[in-house]
Design a protein that fits this description.
The chain is mainly alpha-helical. The chain has nine helices and two strands, in the order H-H-H-E-E-H-H-H-H-H-H. It has a two-stranded antiparallel ribbon with strand order 1-2. This is GntR family transcriptional regulator.
């Protein structure tokens, strides 16, 4: 019973710290004080350390030689590596999803696009990013390629930090650009053009990388 209770506490701590890292409430290289977090979260240090260990395995935090835990830094090299893998896998998944497309999923994609456009019109950049993630997840599910999805899921937390940089940090983020790009993908998907859908997705991911790199150079690369 005690072990189950501790595991639940560790899971909750892990989820909360992970969310704050991905949403930039904790900045790259920021020190995560074990003492302060234990007090603010009202938990003992044991489940907190277990949560830190899981976050370290996901490369979201780094344990320094001094024992201090800091939020993992962001780099252009890592961004390029992650987005190259993402482009290849998401292009493949989009191709498969286009071939498997049905009216139910198509309607869901169109609903997401309407919400994304509304968010862009109201300058809600965070919601634009969230809608983009939902759009991609719908394509993942329909692709039925479990291996490719599995690889992306392993990278998901690290990718999410970079995916959100533009919408959360870039001072001139053009919210209508991702809307136009997702609409272009949907047009190819709707037409059953698997080759075109794959190419358009790869182009979208590649363009997103350029926004990420610009933002990294503005805020995180000294």
């Amino acid at each position: 019973m005690e072990q189950t209770k501790r595991r639940k506490a560790s899971d909750a701590i892990y989820t909360e710290i992970k969310r704050k890292i991905i949403e930039f409430e904790y900045e790259p290289n920021e020190h995560l004080s074990e003492e302060l977090l234990a007090k603010s979260l009202e938990v003992s240090r044991t489940p907190l350390r277990e949560a830190f260990h899981r976050l370290e395995l996901e490369k979201l935090v780094t344990k320094l030689s001094t024992g201090r835990i800091v939020v993992a830094r962001l780099t252009i090299v890592e961004a390029e590596e992650l987005f190259q893998v993402r482009a290849a896998l998401e292009g493949l998944l989009t191709r498969h999803a286009t071939r498997n497309m049905n009216e139910t999923t198509l309607e869901k994609l169109e609903q997401v696009m309407r919400r994304m456009q509304a968010a862009a019109d109201s300058h809600d950049h965070a919601e634009v990013v969230r809608c983009g993630s939902e759009f991609h997840q719908l394509l993942y599910q329909l692709s039925q390629n479990g291996t490719a999805i599995g690889f992306l899921e392993q990278l998901r937390s690290r990718l999410e930090r970079y995916r959100r940089i533009g919408g959360y940090k870039h001072p001139h983020y053009a919210a209508n650009l991702p809307v136009e790009e997702h609409e272009a993908i949907l047009t190819r998907v709707r037409a059953g053009d698997a080759d075109g859908a794959e190419r358009t997705m790869v182009a979208h991911v590649s363009r997103s990388l350029e926004t990420v790199k610009e933002t990294l150079q503005m805020y995180f690369i000294k």
